[in-house]
Design brief:
Blueprint: H1 4-16, H2 22-34, H3 46-66, H4 81-98, H5 104-126, E1 150-154, E2 161-165
Antiparallel strand pairs: 1-2
Helix pairs in contact: 1-2, 1-3, 2-3, 3-4
Length: 166
Amino acid sequence: MFDRRDIVEDELFLIRDSGELPEITYHSSLYYLTTDKDGPGLILTQDEQELLQAAALERCQQIILRDLLPENRNLSLYRGLRRSIFNWQRYCKCCQRMGRQIDEAFRDRVAHALAEFIQQEMIDVRHSKPPSKTPYFLDSSIYRGSSPTSITINFPDGNLVARYVN
């Protein structure tokens, strides 16, 4: 016999430690737990389904924030701001498919991290450091020595706005 809680916890661990596509890992876990002939054949409770969803969304959040941390810009794990935008859009769609709301506190955290990222990018470039794999959507005058008083960035899907005020 199997211990239901241990099996679900194993899947939670796999989702939280998944690679770049936690939503796929989430669906793989659902399949294994409920349908796979080699799986336990569980009928998941609402609480168990919500735990699995939360783990997938948490992993999505980690991936988004990873590429917004200025200290990661020169590391091999860094994928660039464009990738972070793409992952934000993926996160929003994942929330929608799961019937969950976008976490407003997380939205604010991402907007703040994006503004800090851009602020650090501007400072570095002004001090003759090379720009990172950077924002394709920012006005190039930022990199030509101008000193804008503020920058507003709207993510393409309209779900996030970040503002940097100099």
